[in-house]
Known about the structure:
11 helices; 4-stranded mixed β-sheet; two-stranded antiparallel ribbon; 2 domains
Amino acid sequence: MQWKGRRGSDNVEDRRASTGGQVGSSVSGGIGVNLIMMIASRFGFKGIIIAVIGVVILWRLGIVDPSQLLQEGGATSSSSVPMVETAEEKELYEFVRVVLAGTEELWTEEFARVGREYEPPTLVVYRGVVRTACGGGSAAMGPFYCPGDRKVYIDLGFYDELAQTFQAPGDFAQAYVIAHEVGHHVQNLLGTSDKVNAMRGRPDYNQYSVRLELQADYYAGVWANHSRDYLEKGDIEEAMRAANAIGDDAIQKKSQGRVVPHAFTHGTSDQRMRWFKKGLQSGSIEGGDTFSGDYESL
């Protein structure tokens, strides 16, 4: 993929210095919460009462600020854990900026064509764990989109996993992942995500989750179509390999040795490749209706 020398997006938030190598309390709770849990386990309810009285006394003396004790976890100041950026990671950071800029150009054009205004998402680059409007996120989750803050989150270390664990190396495979998550942002702007979320709790909710994911794959294909001028030999095959590797059936077979169709949430490898290819051939927002047809024929 020809990306060097192209415009990079300014809608990128670099949180690597404040997330990687954190020490102190965890994302799931503040220092005070963890301390209370420890006291409760050792001294019971009476111990908690004594501790609270002690904090109140220290607060009135101006020694302790209770709000600081109850803050959600995180780290000591980021300056205590200086970020070390390798040359490879620096290049990846610039790469994702260029990919994001490409999605901005595409969707601004497509939304305008159908009489709407596109509001681009922010891409957050982090390390290890991260706070989002959707709760705590971690590198183990892979790249993800949070509709609550309209941000795409990625730990650049995921690309090593994509190449090594999923056997899907290549810069276009890496770009496809971002384009897919931006596809979820498009769904959020169009109201599609809200309609699917309203179905939570229904017996067939997983099917609607699959439909949502396949539509995001279609939108990634639309992005690939608009990126044709920058494609190199083998790029489309890279994206197809990535779509194939992260299908529910492929992941289930690799992780648990068997396939459980009713537990699918993202679609099979064949489905993901097929909808990406449809978007690639279409190049427009129309044609990505994964909701009206029969589920078995997706």
